[in-house]
Amino acid sequence: MGGPETVTAEPFNAQTPAAALAAHRTAADALFVRSHFAVPRIDPDGWRLRVGAAEFRLAELRASGRREVEAVLECAGNGRSLMRPPAPGVPWDERAVGCALFAGVPFAAVAERAGLDPGAAEYVFTGADSGTVGGRRTPFERSLPVAAALHPDTLLALELNGRPLTAEHGAPVRLVAPGLYGVADVKWLVAVRSVEQPFSGPFQGGSYVYRDSHGTDGGTEDGPVTTVRVRSLITEPAPGARLRVGAETELRGHAWSGAGPVERVEVRIDGGAWRPARLRGGSRYAWCDWSYRWLPERPGGHRIEVRATDASGAAQPLRAPWNADGYGCNPAAALDVVAH
Ligand SMILES: Nc1nc2c(c(=O)[nH]1)N[C@H]1C(S)=C(S)[C@@H](COP(=O)(O)O)O[C@H]1N2
Ligand SMILES: [Mo]
């Protein structure tokens, strides 16, 4: 499988190829890449992580524990190109997403070894990448509330799908806060500090905020971009596939939500009744795989629509929601096919 498909060359932003989304787990070399600045190449031997007043080498970090978390990684801008009118930003279609097995050290173990103040308001995570924002040299930095940072599933990840992280995905160490949009998962991590006031910066407050939100039936709340909204993806048939009248075909895809497991995936054909799909796999943060048997009964064009509902009761809106920076665009998945 080739690499992800370039959306912007500099900085490097690339989306997962459609063919790589069919599998439950997305291959590391196909997974989308989102970078705000040039990708830093870090020598792992020289790398150090500052946590408060403490400093860790890679070997010290590895010795602090190990945990695996299978999770969806999704950019908050995923699906932005569906918004009308268009919203500014990287024009992702619906493939700034994937599902991977992350492995690393629970951040809580490192925070404890470092003596980081558990009574602080937030911890700020700093990446090695930086660039000029508003005339000032700015690193990529984001915070998490202390409770979220110390959650046992919040990892300092060293591996993706059983292999060391690649440079594009944050080598040697990145944060993974499953259930939150990818922007929380600071790559090329070099420092963590505690702060007494809620942090704000160009990537938290300046951007990654829902503003002027509206939608016919969902996605109407303004505020910071945090939890991944419920969403689904159709992976089979492939776009433009030719189906045969009278031949049963299996529709497939994935469904996920940061707010809890997906409870229900429904399919409707040509605007008819919503019918339940079969669900398989899935865990707290990984997507589940849905399937639905369909027998095209007449030749011509057909529209397939898919909507997921999560354990919190949130369902995908039928039409794309809208907000000024194009985040969290999670309408029901739709695909037009032709039967012959
Ligand atoms: N240091 C750093 N971390 C970062 C970013 C970045 O530009 N710099 N981009 C964030 C965003 S917006 C997303 S969606 C994810 C993407 O992770 P990936 O490139 O491994 O797919 O990384 C996040 N972590
Ligand atoms: Mo993102």
TrEMBL record:
<dbReference type="Pfam" id="PF00174">
    <property type="entry name" value="Oxidored_molyb"/>
</dbReference>
<dbReference type="InterPro" id="IPR005066">
    <property type="entry name" value="MoCF_OxRdtse_dimer"/>
</dbReference>
<feature type="domain" description="Oxidoreductase molybdopterin-binding">
    <location>
        <begin position="36"/>
        <end position="201"/>
    </location>
</feature>
<keyword id="KW-0479">Metal-binding</keyword>
<keyword id="KW-0500">Molybdenum</keyword>
<dbReference type="InterPro" id="IPR036374">
    <property type="entry name" value="OxRdtase_Mopterin-bd_sf"/>
</dbReference>
<dbReference type="InterPro" id="IPR008335">
    <property type="entry name" value="Mopterin_OxRdtase_euk"/>
</dbReference>
<dbReference type="Pfam" id="PF03404">
    <property type="entry name" value="Mo-co_dimer"/>
</dbReference>
<keyword id="KW-0560">Oxidoreductase</keyword>
<protein>
    <recommendedName>
        <fullName>Sulfite oxidase</fullName>
    </recommendedName>
</protein>
<feature type="domain" description="Moybdenum cofactor oxidoreductase dimerisation">
    <location>
        <begin position="227"/>
        <end position="327"/>
    </location>
</feature>
<dbReference type="InterPro" id="IPR000572">
    <property type="entry name" value="OxRdtase_Mopterin-bd_dom"/>
</dbReference>
<dbReference type="InterPro" id="IPR014756">
    <property type="entry name" value="Ig_E-set"/>
</dbReference>
